[in-house]
Structures are given as C-alpha cells and as structure tokens.
Amino acid sequence: MLICRTKKEWLNCRDQMEGNGSIALVPTMGALHQGHLQLAKQAKADHDQLVMTIFVNPLQFGEGEDYDHYPRQEEADIEKAKASGVDVLWLPSVDDIYPRDPAVTVRVGKMSERLCGRHRPGHFDGMATVVMKFLQLVRPDAAYFGKKDGQQLAILTRMCEDFHLDVAVVGGETVREEDGLALSSRNVFLSEGERKEAPLLYKTLQKGYERFRQQKESPVKTEREVTAELSERITASIDYVELLTYPSLEPSDENDTDEQLILAAAVRYPQARLIDNVIFERE
C-alpha cells in the first residue's frame, strides 16, 4: 500500500495509476471501523485500484461541534486500510485541501433542510465541498459511501448528477454490532449505560417501519409514535424522527415518484450524536 501525505505526492501517484484499470474512492474521516473496511472491500471487489482518503474536514463541523475531539488514530487506521486491500492511502493536511479560505463552495439546497441538515446548518455544504474536491483530485470511476447517513448519500448522488460528474456513487449497507447498533467512530464516546440502550434507536425505527407498512399509517403518525417510543426508552435527547421520500427527501404523499422511503432519526447523548435509518421500497 502506498501512503501519500501531500497533494504533490498524491498527484504523482495519480499519474502512475493512469492506464492501470478502474479506480474506486472511499473517502473517510478516519477512526476506521468495520463499516469503512466493508466499503473498502466492496470497492476493491468492483474495481482494479482502490484509493482511500482520511481527512477530518473542518468545513463540515459547526460551532460547538466535536472537530477538535473527533477521534484520530492514524497508526491503527494505516494498518486497517492495508489489511482491507487499499492500494493508495492519502492523508492530506488541512492546508493541502484548503490552502486559503475558500471563496467558492458547494451549497446544498432543499435536500439539506430536513433531517440532520436542519440541526447542523452548513454541515452538508462543507461535506459536499470536500467531496467535490476529492472527486476532482482523485478522478475515480466510482465513490463509495455508507447508507447509515442516508441524507449524505442522497445529496452526493444528486450533486454528481447535477454537476454532470462522470462518477458512480455507490451506497454500502450499514454494518452493525450484534445487538443492532450501527458502527460509528463516535460510539467510543458513549458511556456504559448509553451503550447498552443505544441499540434501541435502530430497533425502534424498525418497529415504526413495520407498523407503517402493516397498518398503512400516515407518515406523520409514524413519526409521532417513533418519537414517543424513543422518548420512553432512551435517555438521549431526540433531534428528529422523519419519514420522507428517498432519495429526494421530501414529505411523502400519494403523488410521489420516488420508489423508496426513508425513516430516519438522530439522538444526542452528552458526548455523542447517533444517527440511523431504515430505507425501504414503497408498496
């Protein structure tokens, strides 16, 4: 596995990759877990060459969020990336990606006004901006992102379509602990008691989804019932519970054209914010 740290090193490496088959990109912020590694293995199976980036992007953290405390474990990440088949690992510095204050950024419109975007203003603008930079610099045939952040996946898919980028955006299935908790770099910040109850987030979403499908409930009723059940079962504060069309992320009604729906939620513990969702086919 080759390791690049500067933009210059990366561009030299990219020149050497030219003509050696298809290229897949897995962008990450590090603190790699099995979810990232499963994406890497999926990408490697689909393509000849695999590039992974590790970059904690300051542009997608708002005031009071955990940029300074976001887990960083470079040595362990290098070993995990190597073991999962990564061909090139690029660990750029902030100065490499943002050599000066950006005058032009990607602005996400309506798709960022719901779910996490409503509670983290500017987050998806920063995320889309850095992904756009990596897509331009890496020039992959495909880029891989986890479905756990369904809103991020939907936004990036739409961004590539709207900007006519010649890259496939591929979603990887959410990887979970045995008790159902979605893997996340932020899980390390959960206390013992919080960790025990955290799997109830996904279990409650599953229950809400099943009730919505079987009883033909309205989206609003499902949102209210899931919110009420979460409030009773966990100590975290609830940011949102929303049932929307997917991937357009609009309120659902009988005139929708999307073939899928998403039931998503986010909750906050004192040191960790957790998100999860169920994406399912419309009947």
From TrEMBL:
One of its GO terms (cellular component) is cytosol. Keywords: ATP-binding, Cytoplasm, Ligase, Nucleotide-binding, Pantothenate biosynthesis. It is an enzyme of class 6 (ligase). The keyword Oxidoreductase does not apply. It holds the Pfam family Pantoate_ligase. Beta-alanine binds at residue 60. One of its GO terms (biological process) is pantothenate biosynthetic process. InterPro entries: Cyt_trans-like, Pantoate_ligase, Pantoate_ligase_C, Rossmann-like_a/b/a_fold. Its EC number is 6.3.2.1. It comes from the Bacteria. One of its GO terms (molecular function) is ATP binding. It catalyses: (R)-pantoate + beta-alanine + ATP = (R)-pantothenate + AMP + diphosphate + H(+). Its main location: cytoplasm. It is found in: Cytoplasm. ATP binds at residues 29-36, 146-149, 175, 183-186. Pathway: Cofactor biosynthesis; (R)-pantothenate biosynthesis; (R)-pantothenate from (R)-pantoate and beta-alanine: step 1/1. The active site is at 36 (proton donor). (R)-pantoate binds at residues 60, 152. HAMAP family: PanC (MF_00158). NCBIfam families: cyt_tran_rel, panC. The reaction proceeds by a bi uni uni bi ping pong mechanism. Homodimer. Catalyzes the condensation of pantoate with beta-alanine in an ATP-dependent reaction via a pantoyl-adenylate intermediate. Belongs to the pantothenate synthetase family. This is Pantothenate synthetase. The lineage of its organism: Bacteria, Bacillati, Bacillota, Bacilli, Bacillales.
